[in-house]
Design a protein that fits this description.
By secondary structure, the protein is an alpha+beta fold. 48% of the residues lie in helices and 16% in strands. The chain contains 11 helices and 12 strands. The chain is globular, with a radius of gyration of 21 Å.
Length: 390
């Protein structure tokens, strides 16, 4: 693998870094940053800035206003965007919209792209992805899907409840996973203002980086035309992998930027703060933490870049993305946790950005599959050739 960045990628990296530093980081203390993410007013303001800078929706093709970046190039830009908790939102590459855009680009019809994907890629609207359900419905096991879709003439009637639905509040449309009468999972597109959709309540969470936060969403005989099925009926779980493998990796890219920010803040503090006749960083207890941070950031970047290369070979990358996700989520957590420790009292306050990053990244070991489930999946792949040979 060639690790050299082309002149074009280096320029994109520097432009994104400068944009985040000049335009987005100053907004981090804006009162429109709430416990449930930036407000719609702030989101639109940042989207406008990114559009003017030519950095909006970089993962989308040029005909949808993007830069058409491959996964390797996204790894560079998304890391820079993630240097601020607001960066991915500003560049319209935050979850769940980024993953939804990618999946719709691959499987949506021309009419669906015109109606939903185009305004989403332009940053005019937001979306949500409705898959996770309360017990006894599907969580990490999609085979437990409980939400139903019953055929009624030319329509489907969807009934069920979802929770931990990121961005539901304020979203213009949803991608809903439901099972048909024969049990096969299917995806549906539906405007959020349709009769039969109810946001039951907001869910308070540690993180505050996603517009709209997280919510419980209920469907009560939601009528969806058959023309609004996303892809083919019964292929929902297959299409979910089109979305989830790249989406796991883009989470890694974005939060790598956040971990690097925490490390930078801790490094500056360790270099400047004096104790017992020398800087904190000159004490082994702190200096070794900085060294461990640097190694964890390096390992994470290598795992991300390798998986990005894998996906650029038109491979689904389930195994590679699981490996990258576990390595990244756990290494990133260690980096941010050490950074909090180095900062001492400041690390657990909002005097710096680190406490906010700390709260955001803890969920990373759970979102898009907890580490335990990915380890189980990795183990199955390791053992498969041996069990098949029996």
């Amino acid at each position: 693998m060639d690790f050299t960045l082309s002149p074009e990628l280096l320029d994109l990296q520097q432009r994104t870094r400068a944009f985040i530093a000049e335009h987005i980081i100053p907004l981090e203390k804006d009162p429109r940053c709430t416990a449930h993410g930036p407000t719609e007013d702030l989101r639109k303001e940042m989207i406008s800035l990114a559009r003017k800078a030519g950095l909006l929706s970089s993962h989308m093709p040029s005909e949808l206003g993007g830069l058409g970046l491959n996964h390797r190039a996204k790894a560079i830009l998304f890391e820079e965007a993630g240097y601020s908790p607001l960066g991915p939102v500003a560049l319209n590459i935050a979850a769940p919209d980024e993953g939804n855009m990618h999946m719709m680009e691959v499987i949506a019809t021309a009419a669906q792209k015109e109606r939903w994907l185009k305004p989403l890629a332009l940053g005019e609207i937001r979306s949500c992805f409705c898959m996770t359900e309360p017990s006894p419905g599907s969580g990490s096991d999609p085979g437990m899907l409980a939400t139903t879709a019953v055929r009624d003439g030319d329509d489907y009637l969807i009934t069920g409840e979802k929770w931990f639905i990121t961005g539901a509040e304020g979203a213009s449309f949803a991608i809903i996973m439901a099972k048909l009468e024969d049990g096969r999972a299917t995806m549906f597109l539906a405007d959020m203002d349709r009769p039969g959709i109810q946001i039951v309540r907001a869910m308070d969470a540690l993180d505050s980086c996603f517009p709209g936060g997280h919510a419980v969403v209920r469907f009560d005989k939601l009528r969806v035309p058959a023309s609004d099925v996303l892809g083919e009926p019964g292929e929902g779980l297959k299409y979910a992998q089109v979305r989830l493998s790249p989406a796991r990796l883009t989470h890694c890219m974005r939060w790598l930027g956040g971990a690097r920010r925490a490390h930078d803040v801790a490094t500056r503090y360790a270099a400047q703060r004096q104790a017992f006749g020398k800087s904190l960083g000159e004490h082994e207890g702190v200096g070794f933490k900085l060294a461990d941070n640097e190694m964890d950031l390096h390992i994470t970047r290598l795992a991300v870049w390798h998986c990005a290369w894998f996906l650029d070979q038109d491979n689904l990358g389930r195994h590679a993305s699981s490996i990258a996700k576990v390595i990244s989520s756990e290494a990133i957590w260690r980096v941010v946790d050490r950074s909090v420790q180095i900062l001492g009292g400041q690390g657990v306050t909002h005097e710096t950005i680190v406490a906010r990053i700390f709260a955001d990244v803890r969920a990373f070991r759970i979102y898009d599959g907890p580490s335990e489930v990915h380890r189980w999946s990795i183990a199955k792949n390791i053992l498969r050739p041996h069990t098949q040979a029996r």
